[in-house]
Design a protein that fits this description.
Layout (H helix, E strand, L loop, with lengths): L7 E5 L2 E4 L3 E6 L10 E5 L6 E3 L3 H9 L3 H20 L4 H11 L3 H13 L1
Antiparallel strand pairs: 1-2, 3-4, 4-5
Helix pairs in contact: 2-4
Length: 118
Amino acid sequence: MKIQASTLVPLGFGKYVRSDQVTAVVPIEQDRGPGRRTFVHIQGQSDPVIASRAEDSIVRDLVQEPHEVVQARQQQEILRDLLMDLGNVNTTVRRIMRDEGGIDLDLLERRIREVLED
């Protein structure tokens, strides 16, 4: 699990907290009810914030990777798969694709490698 810095996590009813400032998530045992599910302790504050969401859903949001990170990882996986498949294309097919179709697989492979190296 990894806490994502500067990611806002919803606590419910329009309350949000930065994920890297949460020090503890404690379920409310007494007087728990609508709008009162979890105590969220925040760095630098003596009193916890009362969240209307359950503790497990808050924790899940705290450690979840942002959508952009997941999407970038998926894009890199697709590029690696494509690069592996391109490596199996023989020189005759490469020549035909370049000369007849205008698709330069050698150039495409080089560009994919450059992207993956960054």
